[in-house]
Amino acid sequence: MTKAEMNVATGRLFNIAGEIFKEKSIKDSLIINEEKLQIDGDFSAEPFNVHLKFSIYPENGMMTFFSLLPFDVPATKVSEFAKLVCTVNYYDFYAGNYDYNPDTGKVVFRLAVLYRGSIISSELLAESVQYVVDTVSKYNQRFFEAARDS
CA–CA separation, 90 vs 108, rounded Å? Predict the structure, then answer.
């Protein structure tokens, strides 16, 4: 794929993502940064809304979805929580994974998709957004309970 073709593909992908976020995210949460090729938005989910950052990295031909969980893990739970994240990642995922930083207590779900040399359809992008929202919704409560100090 030439640089010009990559620029066209990147622009198309960013426009599609913008439309999906405009349609599905909570309207007042939407932030579109064309310069950085990033879109942020909150999505309705239980038990917490899901915050989702979409980014495009044209130099790598990659797009990422990144969702920071809305709570921190206390230092008293580091070992137990790290084991839970590793277990969930190992047994439950083929696409995406949770990352846990024990120094900060932050937990994120990340999904990366390569698009170099391919055409990403609006349906695939919409499915990717829904996959991340559904996945984070499914595990938010479990991780929140595990992070709570007893």
Answer: 16
